[in-house]
């Protein structure tokens, strides 16, 4: 009787492992689809990481990580960081959007515009006072500059603060030894490698580089793919 139960348990466990492996392989096959500058496509927004970073699934299949072109939203630990994330979710979370790829960032993310029913997502967030015009990387976006000036003049969102700190300056301040343990992360904080990879890419920003959370502690990031061993 005991032997029969052991055999049944073994068969059941084997089936579970097989199903998990098949699901993982399928998920990996859909990760990080390559796109090119100038490419446009429709997609469903699956994940709003924060106000300027998104995971989308193309209508023809494949998942792409998007970094908004010309926009830098406050980090989650900054004032209005969570408000920016909530606003982005309200505008595009779970919705079908149009993506226009402007360039590929140095860490492989698609830097792109996202068009939703309400209009250009970057313009919406900047106009709400929940993101900055990233002038260094999009100096010709005069509409973004105009909307930021307008939001600032109206003291909307982050501009209600006396001296709001730009996200790029905040990252420079918090990426060194003084970064608090509350914001620090290591691989044990993530369930999967893709999840850790997304966090790694988000905080190894295209503007400042570096690995403030030391996720790539052994320095094995591939220059070609931007991925690290988990």
Automatic annotation (TrEMBL):
Q: Name one GO molecular function term.
A: hydrolase activity
Keywords from UniProt, A to Z, are: Endonuclease, Hydrolase, Nuclease, Signal
The keyword Hydrolase belongs to this UniProt entry's keyword annotation: yes
* Top-rank lineage group of the source organism: Bacteria
What PROSITE patterns does UniProt report for this protein, alphabetically?
A: TNASE_3
Pfam families xref list: SNase
What the entry lists under SUPFAM superfamilies is as follows: Staphylococcal nuclease
Q: Where is this region: Disordered?
A: 155-230
Domain (TNase-like) ranges? 39-161
**Signal sequence annotation:** 1-21
Q: What is this protein called?
A: Endonuclease YncB(Thermonuclease family)
- The source organism is Salinibacter ruber
